[in-house]
Amino acid sequence: MRGFYIVGGYPDREQFKKCLNAVASAGFEFVEVGIPFSEPVADGPVIASAIHEAVMNGVDIEAIMADVREMKQKYPSIKATVMTYANIIHGYGEKKFSDDFGDILSGVIIPDLPSRMHYWMMEKGLSIPVIPFVTPVSRNEDIEAVKDTKAPFVYYISIMGVTGSDKKGAQNDRSETAKKLTGKPVVTGFGIRTKEDADRALNTTGGFVIGTEVVKRQKDFDSFCKYIQQFR
Amino acid sequence: MDKKMFFGEYGGQFVPETLIPALDELEYWYNKLKKDDKFKAELDTLLRSYAGRPTPVYKAENLSKECGCEIYLKREDLMHTGAHKVNNTLGQALVTKYMGKNRVIAETGAGQHGVATATAAALFGMECTVFMGEVDARRQEPNVKRMQLLGAEVVRVQDGQRTLKDATNAALREWVASVENTHYIIGSIVGPYPFPEMVAYFQSVIGIEANEQCKELGFDPDCVVACVGGGSNAIGIFQGFLDNPNVEIFGVEAGGVSDKDGEHARTIGMGKPGILHGAFSYLVQTPQFQVADVHSISAGLDYPGIGPAHAALNDSGRVTYGYVRDDEALNAFKMLTRKEGIIPALESSHALAYVIENKDRFKGRKVLVNLSGRGDKDMAAILERGLV
Q1: Which domain holds residue A105?
Q2: Structure pTM?
């Protein structure tokens, strides 16, 4: 599974729509749309600064999701996911978020909602699958706890750090174990930059997602398209 | 639902998955050490011989006369490093030592927690990095220098509003990247479980002591009052009195300049439940669920969140949460200085101001106020406002 993360509504609505549709029309399997939150604690400087800029300009959840819906109507086969922090979904309402957007989303990625807290949002009515994380320090029991996930994939955070870190992938690679224990494709994120990084992830565990390198180019559509094309 | 992580419905562990094993490790050590006689004796000795416990309860006669009630001050301002913060940093640094880690990080607003962490790190020979918002670093420059003198690295955070919440974001990011050899000494009763419980435990010494001291003086207070930012000094003193239904308890939030957006830090008064820095609690937020800008004259109260224990105490009605404005806090600051010869921190001045501004409510009653810190660090802010 090949996917890209883009910041919703950034740098403005039109440019975001163009980037979103570019990912979908290029035939990639999924897109991860960020709904900006003012406290992006899991994000490194590139994504955090894009998010801060988006927050300063005003975040319109309905508008972002309307653009995702329009894209899905044009490209029904791509899986759409939303990446946002817990307060956004809780504030909007777990049930309302599911009722309003459950039909267009294959999953939600919530970086400050670890697997053991999924129940908290599900009890409040979140019915869209929460994509579980596996990290280099996940223990077998952590991975086993998410083996019945309804999410389309497991998200493997390959480094101990925030998005876009230039750390090397951790020594203790848990992605194979995650694949074995959950039987789901494992998408590797955080720190994937080059075609080689992406191919390695695709060949070993079945997927990758690229964020920082894409967000860096979100203001320059030509360079954005050129960058994503190499992963086709 | 894992009840141990919650105070009523508030609390939890809303953090990146990467931190979960470290939180489990911390929970294991905290539960083990709080029952360990050797650990407790070691901490007790440090608090007494190094940090200056017990702190006295002092009857402020002159101020009492002004206010028409009996005001007693719990003198946490006399603690080493100038505030109650060191109760917690010594405790957590000792936990760090037992966990076998050799580096600590911390966030700081006014700089008090940063200084208290740098102090504990110097004492224990640990590496220390403190994250401080650029705006706070500028308004509390002497504390930046103190931390550096103590051997800590101070990182000036340039994101967002460049205050305490942004420093906390930066510290959380750093912790994710260094969790294997680093402990994050959170400065208040905020953050993911077990931090709110553990910090409350280390601060409970304030209330336990104060309760005993009042009894020795032959009374139970009618009221206990403390300022609340994240809420660690407040929960510290409250814990000595929550079980006594005859004691009325008040938490005082920073009312800033007005109730307009961005001009106050009234988390309980103006916020609604939300998720920040690892916990579900009250949160000042915008209609689009972004964390809102807040303001207080006091850097230590300039925070949009509050500890989950306070959210629960508010909802249950056990504690009444009020507020005072910046100018009322300044007035209290002046009054204590002139009437008693004690220069309080601007944070603690909020608690005093609440008593001064609500004289009728406290008339004739015995009121115990937590004087959580001293005002040396606030000289620049005070001079700016032409008080001298």
Answers
A1: 2-229
A2: 0.96
DSSP string, B74-136: EEGGGSGGGBTHHHHHHHHHHHHHHHT--EEEEEESSSHHHHHHHHHHHHHT-EEEEEEEHHH
- Which chain B residues are closer than 8 Å to A137 by Cβ? 18, 21-22, 179-180
Please state, in angstroms and rounded to a whole number, the distance separating the CA atoms of residues B211 and B204: 11
How far is C-alpha B55 from the geometric centre of its chain's CA atoms?
17
| Helix (H) and strand (E) counts in chain B | 16, 14
Last residue of a domain, one of B144, B168, B195: B195
Among residues B156, B174, B195, the one where a domain terminates is B195
Tell me the backbone φ, ψ of residue A33, rounded to 5 degrees: -100, 125
Whether residue B117 sits in one domain with residue B77: no
Residues B184 and B209 in one domain: no
Cis peptide before B54 (omega within 30 of 0): yes
Taking CB atoms and an 8 Å limit, are B277 and A39 in contact across chains? yes
**Per-10-residue mean pLDDT, chain B, length 388:** 89 96 97 98 98 98 97 98 97 98 95 97 98 91 95 94 92 92 97 98 98 97 98 98 98 98 97 98 97 93 96 98 97 97 97 97 98 92 83
Q: Are residues B234 and B310 in the same domain?
A: yes
Active-site residue, B107 included: yes
Chain B residue closest to A163 (CA)?
Answer: B173
Candidates A41, A67, A40, A70; CA nearest to A55 is A40
Residue B100 is which amino acid?
Answer: G
Tokens of residue B320, six digits: 């009444």
Element (H, E) at B26: helix B20-33
To the nearest 10 degrees (0 to 180), the angle between helices B85-99 and B20-33 is: 100
Same domain, B231 and B345: yes
Q: How far is B76 from B87, CA to CA, in rounded Å? A: 10
Considering the domain architecture, whether residues B65 and B173 belong to the same structural domain is answered as: no
Quick one: B20 and B105 in the same domain?
Answer: yes
Domain of B340, in residue numbers: 53-83+204-384
Contact in structure between B168 and B305 (CB atoms under 8 Å) = no
Respond yes or no on whether the N-terminal peptide bond of residue B194 is cis (omega within 30° of 0): yes
Catalytic residue among B70, B76, B85, B328: B85
**CATH number for the domain that contains residue A48:** 3.20.20.70
**Closest to B26 (Cα-Cα) out of B83, B98, B80:** B98
Residue B184, beta-bridge partner list: B105
In this prediction, the residues of chain A whose per-residue pLDDT falls under 70 are: 167-172
Task: Looking at the structure, tell me whether residues B184 and B322 fall in a common domain.
Answer: no
Contact: B275, A160; criterion CB under 8 Å: no
Phi, psi of A109 (to 5 degrees): -115, 115
Of A39, A61, A160, the CB nearest to B291: A39
